[in-house]
């Protein structure tokens, strides 16, 4: 079940990075299109997914960012904004009772696409996320 409607502004949230710094979605308002990935409970594939997403992000422009949110502690990963949601409050705000999912927004937080995932294997491949961001950039610049 999807909890947000395309075209709406995704809720703001504030969480801590692995380094203890606070990050809010609004920190990037007007600056970058976002991929927001909520990792399902650790299933052994999270490190591989993070590595693949990190590789994809390195090809993105400075106006495209990836935020990864997990209830579990994750190590900092190059190119990714990794956040911890230990009580899964932000996850519930976005997914309801879903285990994981993904959201694509423009630089102002307007939702373009979303999906849910029962496991990390159900998340879109990082290349698909890259294609979504290209689409968002095309729509926003045209």
UniProtKB/TrEMBL annotation:
This is Alkyl hydroperoxide reductase/ Thiol specific antioxidant/ Mal allergen. The lineage of its organism: Bacteria, Bacillati, Chloroflexota, Chloroflexia, Herpetosiphonales.
């Amino acid at each position: 079940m999807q909890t947000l409607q395309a075209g709406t502004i995704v809720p703001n949230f504030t969480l801590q990075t692995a380094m203890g710094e606070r990050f809010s979605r609004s920190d990037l308002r007007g600056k970058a299109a976002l991929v927001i990935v909520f990792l399902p409970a650790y299933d052994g594939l999270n490190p591989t997914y993070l590595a693949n997403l990190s590789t994809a992000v390195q090809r993105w422009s400075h106006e495209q960012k990836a935020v990864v949110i997990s209830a579990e502690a994750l190590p900092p990963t190059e190119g990714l904004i990794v956040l911890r949601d230990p009580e899964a409050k932000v996850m519930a705000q976005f997914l309801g009772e879903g285990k994981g999912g993904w959201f694509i927004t423009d630089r102002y937080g307007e939702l373009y696409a979303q999906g849910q995932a029962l496991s990390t294997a159900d998340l879109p491949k990082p290349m698909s996320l890259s294609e979504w961001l290209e689409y968002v950039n095309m729509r926003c610049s045209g």
